[in-house]
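Recall the central idea of this unit: under ordinary conditions, the amino acid sequence of a chain determines the structure it adopts. In this exercise we apply that idea directly, starting from the sequence alone.
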Amino acid sequence: MRSFVASPMRHGRLFLCGDAAHIVPATGAKGLNLAVNDVRLLAAALAAHYRDGDDSGLDAYSEVALRRVWRAQDFSNAMTQLLHDLGDGPFGRALQLSRLDYIARSTSAARALAENYVGLPAEPGF
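Accordingly, the structure predicted from this sequence is:
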């Protein structure tokens, strides 16, 4: 269950998107969504650059994209710990069951899980 994040997602005029910039464990089901978001952000930034000479979107691309990437990394990591036996023994298994029980009993925990699973709102201005 490999994870990777290139930070920043830009080097000069080279911009990284999708798996070239970040890899998330499949448990969170976020890889394609992150790639599409990267392309959406970069396309808008490139359009503004070539249409208006405005580089603000290009300059902010990495920072804006990485906010969502790190949120997805955290969620995918949490889902992996929640759903898989990682060999942590009885203590780890008890923590896992406690987390599952908390989600089942808490509306707030269930709502947070659902919000992260379904996705986050788009960034303003992009």
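The chain is about 65% helix and 5% strand.
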